[in-house]
Specification:
There is one protein chain. The protein is built from 11 helices and 11 strands. By secondary structure, it is of the alpha/beta class. The chain folds into 2 domains: about 5-200, 3-Layer(aba) Sandwich (Rossmann fold); about 210-315, 3-Layer(aba) Sandwich (Rossmann fold). Strands 7, 8, 9, 10 and 11 form a 5-stranded mixed beta sheet that branches. A 4-stranded parallel beta sheet has the order 4-3-5-6, sandwiched between helices. The chain has a two-stranded antiparallel sheet with strand order 1-2.
Length: about 325
Amino acid sequence: MTGFKKMMVIVVAAVMVFVCIIAGAGCSSGDGNEALPTEDAGDGDGTYQPEISAPPIVYPYTFEDQTGYSVTLPHEPMTVVTVGPDITEIMFAIGRGIQIIGRSEEDSFPADVEEIPSIGSINSPDAEAIAELEPDIILLTDKVPAEKIAEIREKNIPTVVINTPQTFEGIYDSIKYIGRVLNGEKAAYSYVVDMQGDISTMLINNAGNEKHKVCIVTEYSEETDTVITSKANVSKYGYYEDVIKTVGGKSCDINEDPYYIVCIGEKLKTQVEKSTAMQDLAAVKMGRVYYVYEESFEIRSQRSVNALYAIAEIMGYTLL
């Protein structure tokens, strides 16, 4: 074990023990329901205790990752390498960011990730660099090429592949799954309940709003002066459609007279507004063309709420 890893294990263990002492909750590594609470993990006042239906974790713990690959953890993972910003952000959200000792170069949030060593990009993670860090577990997005996943697994470090959620509900499942793998289900479940509660409150408060049609533009062809929408390409952009559904909006295609046009990225908004083919649309004439940041849709973690709120705000909702 390298000196760096020894230091990280000691720091993480000390933090977990300290949190348990001040919370008055005797921690043990084998009951499967322990968490490393932070101000961002679940209810800040500590009053909410989610019901966890899964049996307690006993080590060695064998389970299947989300691709069906069998993984065995000899002990509770203390140090983690994450490959995929969605995974990294979820870990920070549920209070497990301190355990990350390596991450992909695409990570940009929260700011603390800049202090964590990069192990390469999602498309080309460096298996040797990962192995040198000696993590207890590696969490990979399914966007990593299959040959790279196989190369990393050859290092005989427990490796878990997590599928990219294709629905908003799937994001909740990802958060809970990562919590389970890291033996921190309470914090993960609490965080999900908080997310669901905030969204439900917003929807209830805006239940009387008129639901105008929304069209999400995902691509533009300058050569043909045409757009591609999430409605027209559900096989690729089904998640975008699900966000509109989750916020209670009415999705439509560009030829169905949308009241709002939402573009993925500021550049795309400019292209739509300048497009000759779009000039007759009421939404363009009335200035109802908007844009949202692509990361809010493509990084599917707790930040996905930002995409949902952005659509809601465009639709005239009052946010929390």
